[in-house]
Amino acid sequence: MSINLFYQKHGFYKIKTLYAGAKFVMDKLIGFMFSGQGSQYYNMGHELYKGNNIFRKWMLRLDKIVIDIIGESIVARLYDGEKVFEDKFDRTFYTHPAIFMLEYSLARVLVENGIEPDFVLGTSLGEFTSAALSEVIGIEESMELLVKQAEIIETHCPKGGMLSILHKPELYYKTAILYENSELASVNYSSHFVVSGHTEGLIKIKEFLYSRNIIFQDLPVAYGFHSSLIDPAELPFIDFLTKKTFEPPKIPFVSGLYAKVITSLSGDYFWKVARQPVNFPRTIYELEKNSKNIYLDLGPSGTLSNFVKRNIHRESLSQSYHIVTPFGKENEKLNAIFQLFFK
After folding, report:
1. Where in this chain does the record put each Malonyl-CoA:ACP transacylase (MAT) domain (predicted)?
2. Distance between CA 154 and CA 148 in Å, rounded?
3. Percent of the chain whose pLDDT exceeds 90
4. 139: domain range?
5. Is 124 among the catalytic positions?
6. What is the value of pTM for the model shown?
7. Catalytic: which of 35, 124, 130, 164?
8. 196-229: pLDDT as tens digits
């Protein structure tokens, strides 16, 4: 038994289906969240791949698309049986499609089990997954865009890296060794930010942070996304984008770039999401102003779920959950999500 409810949120009219036994509060919106580069690792989603037929079906379908484009299997590379979490998975040519494949496949698991999003929210590469799920572009075109962007970046841009720093973002502006050797790539919450830079500059920054007992982590990326280090890729990628057409989103599309719902996307949008800095707190602030939400992090590491919890007010009725992390128990976490919605 189910009930259809017609309502308006974020300026969009939508029919929401409530299934018998649903436990969640009706006035909470369901948001699917998708993370980007730096959240990936070998064997991500492997438990789901082995234990969930829908997830495996979509991973293999997307893998066939990749094979047609690049002549190689991402699934075989991701789950080759020899790599472990500690092995760095940072070749953009492979990680771009791998992240998309996992996120889109996990989204399809939820949708095909009756859990549909009231909005999608991507950050960085995750905006490609948002666009595919909301049918701005098809999955074949999404994969083509991701592979092409990776090829162009690897061809035109200098190697670099990204550093996650557990400290107030003000540290960046107050510390010469940071702003002289890197660019601010993202602010994730009040005591967490990421910088991009050349390898030599990041080494200097790590030495400084270590001397001050400030926690930091190298992200598994080979290029300085969200910084001028990838500017050489702009013209060839935008030239490629001008040949593509983009449909209006069929699911409310919360832009991680603009921190608001947008109703149309131009080609250069998919360049900007890689180049411009990310301000995650601003996006969550805007969402929390308008509604109470259930945020479902469908990325590989659960990072966005953690970021949400750090950004929402302690009295907020919103909730945030993840399914996939390097620590496993993916099928159990997926079943726990189902328990939120069904008896």
Report:
1. 33-332
2. 10
3. 83
4. 29-157+227-342
5. yes
6. 0.91
7. 124
8. 999 999 999 999 999 999 999 999 999 999 999 9
